[in-house]
Amino acid sequence: MVANSGEVIVEGLITYIGLVILLTFHEFGHAWVALKCGDDTAKEQGRVSLNPLAHIDPIGTVLMPLLMIFMSPNISRFMIGWAKPVPVDLNNLGSRNRDDILITLAGPTMNLLLAVLLVALVRVGLLVHLEPMAEVCLRFASLSLLLCFFNLIPIPPLDGSRVMRVLIGMSYETYWHLSRFGFIAIILVLQIPLVRDLLATAVGHALLLLASVFGLPVQ
Known about the structure:
This protein is an all-alpha fold. The protein has one domain. It is built from 9 helices and no strands. It has helices at 2-36, 41-44, 58-71, 96-127, 131-150, 159-168, 172-179, 182-189, 193-213. It is globular, with a radius of gyration of 18 Å.
């Protein structure tokens, strides 16, 4: 029993390391596209960086994931978190709405691209008979897809809500006021079984699609 618990903790910590790396790339994607769109706010704050310390959010990157590790027996199957939102000054953008949406979608797109790369590495790992590497890459690919779909939920400060803000014409000030309390709504929404089931289904179908693209056994 103790050994099994220890294994769960170790698997959870490995997944946590993957989560931090994937969140770092996610936020880097936002910051890099913002810079390309003419806004150097994130760059001035050191956010165009692959250093995880530049993006850590105390609740979304540390507290919530670690609580999941030590409180949930199925943590290796479902871990969620988020990093500090990348600051964007809309006044620096050439096209406020278009560029804001491009910057917003850069994060989920980065997670999708990482998932493709990780599934490709699964294929490589199996070809060279490095099954443990393939297993870790597959787990991280699943996690990256989960972050992609999770961030598209329209709850501030998740990316889906930023796209929704543009579409409905909400002021930036109102949006950021709502974002101050958004993490509470996120935690509550994740307690709804239907939401978790929809996320799991989306990840499962996307993973099966990528597996078929790279000629991996589809289960």
